Known about the structure:
By secondary structure, this protein is an alpha+beta fold. It is built from 31 helices and 28 strands. The chain folds into four domains: 6-46 and 117-225, Calcium-transporting ATPase, cytoplasmic transduction domain A, CATH 2.70.150.10; 236-302 and 674-885, Calcium-transporting ATPase, transmembrane domain (Up-down Bundle); 308-334 and 528-663, Rossmann fold; 339-525, Calcium-transporting ATPase, cytoplasmic domain N (3-Layer(aba) Sandwich). α11 (288-304) runs antiparallel to α25 (665-705) and α18 runs parallel beside α20 (554-564).
Amino acid sequence: MLVKQPYTKDIAALVAEMHSEVQRGLSSKEADKLLQQYGQNLIQAEKQRRLLTMLLQQFASPMVLLLLFAAVLSFFFQEWLDGTAILAVVLINALIGFYMELQANRSMNALRHMVSLSAKVIRDGSLQEVPSENVVPGDVLYVEAGDMILADARIFNPTQLEVDESALTGESLPVTKDVAVLAGEVPLAERVNMLFKGTFVTKGNAYALVTGTGMGTELGKIASLVQQAEQTATPLEKKLEQLSKKLIWITVGLVIVIFFAGLAQGAEWVKVLEVSIALAVAAIPEGLPIVATLALAQGMLRMAKHNVIVKKLAAVETLGGTNVICTDKTGTLTQNIISVNTILIPAGKTEVEYRADGTVGVPLEVRNSKNYQKIVEAAILCSTANLEMKDNVLREVGDPLEVGLLKFSTTEGKDIHQVREKFLKIREEAFTSETKIMATLHEDGNASIVFAKGAVEELLQKCTSILQEGELQDFSDRQKAGWIAQAELLASEGLRLLAFAYKETHSLQEGITQGLVFTGILGLLDPPRVEVSTALDECRSAGINVIMITGDHPATARNIALKLGLLGDKELPIMHGKDMKDFADLTNQDKKSWLESVVFARVTPKQKIDLVTLLQENRYIVGMTGDGVNDAPAIKKADIGIAMGLRGTQVAQEVSDMVLKDDSFTSIVVAIKQGRIIFENIKKFVAYLLSCNLSELFVVALASVLNLHFALVPLQILFINLVTDVLPALALGVTEGNDLIMKDKPRNPDTPIIDNKQWKAVFTYAAVITLCVLGAVFTSHYLYHQTEFWNPQLCNNILFFTLVFSQLWHVFNMSSAKVSFFKSEVVKNKYVWYALTLCIVLVATVYFAQPLRDVLSLYAMSAGDWMISLGFSFLSLLIIQVLKRTRLIV
């Protein structure tokens, strides 16, 4: 049984009751046993719709109901074959819709499982990362700023811990946590010694004993808060619904004309009604939302292969219109492989030599200096990172910068664990974007010692002394200015700088970071990613502005920007955070300066939000990257929030629309390209379906108006709709696109899927196909069958087969006219060829299988008639290609 009211119990008693240990946690065997007992740490997912319900909903469309009405009429008038065939086609359509929706759901489920969270727990005496679902009651959990809390837990040993519990309690302000034992029944929001699953740490860190997992957590009791049972339609789905409604009105108008024209010509009203209803169903591409969802989901899976996890369907639509990327520097534009390059102490500047055998070269006089020794101690102690050798593999846990410092310290012969055991940490002040300093307090015998590291300017302000020649000396403002000048020179070389300080104390009345002793500066190198320059060029060609935002020194930011070519030919000034006014106080000139800047340094989280707001006010579609808890508001504010997968905090990943598994800027560009391709694919199959269905409408309408007695019968219309709509459209949905798509300017998000130019093209496509189909009929009649009377059966067959093949070849008209026809993305799409092959096999089966041929009222045709039918179907392709290549239509 899980412990009841753990907040009322002393931590020692609670640990004993749960058979755990504070220092070593659970053993792996104990954890496995508890996992079997309590199950995985998961909130039960919302039950998906039953398959039968999903299948039945395929029959809920008004158009399908109309078709079922036509089948009932057929049975009523004893047209048994027609009625049965109509029902068969309706069933096939429903099965196809069911399959596509099922595939879309499976694709989305696969995507949901790609972003997995991990928890830091103590097991077998060491800090380990385990999948969140494997956390069990009794685990000792370690959390720090930026972490999602993955289980309910009783806090012990907190350090300035604050938690955002708004998702659970509605309280907007972070809650300060402590270890005080509470008495009696306490409201959830007042349980200050507890952590709750689904909330996140905004400041500090703590260890905590897990008391509840999965459905045994407070979040599990109110699981509806996170299940989000109802999914709203994406903007694209809404546009498709609007498009379908417009088409319904157009179709209704044409069907009414066809119906009354048929009656005026003396046709049986039942037959005319059947044709009208079947034509109405054929004219409306009802599968558009499902095909679009499937195309989006498959595109998202394709992005996943490029290290991009898109979490929301709507984000794919927005990607195609993104025209500004606000990107972090560290790890996104740079390699995030941190190494110590330069040591700056009062004795002078030293460049570190890295040898082939893995050791580092630091001059003996520097190595023996007290300044250097204090810097190395601070690098080990003032840190939350860790290095562990497990199964002969070095495991790195923590921030890459701190990991880099630990690696440097180990090459100096320091044993991290021995140093940390000697100086037991008793307090920590975490690094924040406001203070830019991290400090830790340690016990050293009877005295206490503080180690601190942080940004040069900020840490120097906290120092009153300097360690020089092994002794403490007063540290004047003039000396500090000299150190800042030296730091700026190092920063201009592209180095990231960290200043170090310490103090020995018996009293903390003045504060942990007051009265520090300055020891020196380390210059760390984080080289640019070699592939980023090419990606930036691609962004320029695509009309995408790239803005670099960093908390680093302006000189460091400028150096990296110059190396990457981000500044271009212009020597644009670097926008410094201290010079950025509050958003409400910005003048028009200030806004202009912000909009013209491409590099922002020493920027606060609030300033990031202000920049995104300004860009959005100026009609930009903004993508914002981030990794820390303080980046989360800006990530959420942006049109596309992009979190880092390797170094990103769980909070940043939670609020983002997209996660980069490799943290690379190049992956963002790939995602935008894929987003554009996906939207173009959707436009392709929408235009394809509309033009095919309109051509059917035109053919039947003209045949009725001209009183031609060889119009298509309902089953033929349904077969054409079934064969030409589904498979080629699905194939178009997975077209891989071409590189020229990144030469186009970003898409305006307000632009409809089919704009006026494309509507003109759709009607032109349909008109050309219609004329070629009727042309085949007239040519066959006058060339081979020069009789006074038309042969309705033959004419109907030529009409049918010419229309089928014209629509099949029409898929190639969806290719871009900017590239050679044979090198186009559609021609190179293997799925298009698979779809065409299958469609041709289906047509051949219907033609050669006598029973099926009888059902569709088809007859054997001569070789000459086949040549005419196929010839005119290819002619429609040729005419449309000429119109596209001469830019008469898009």
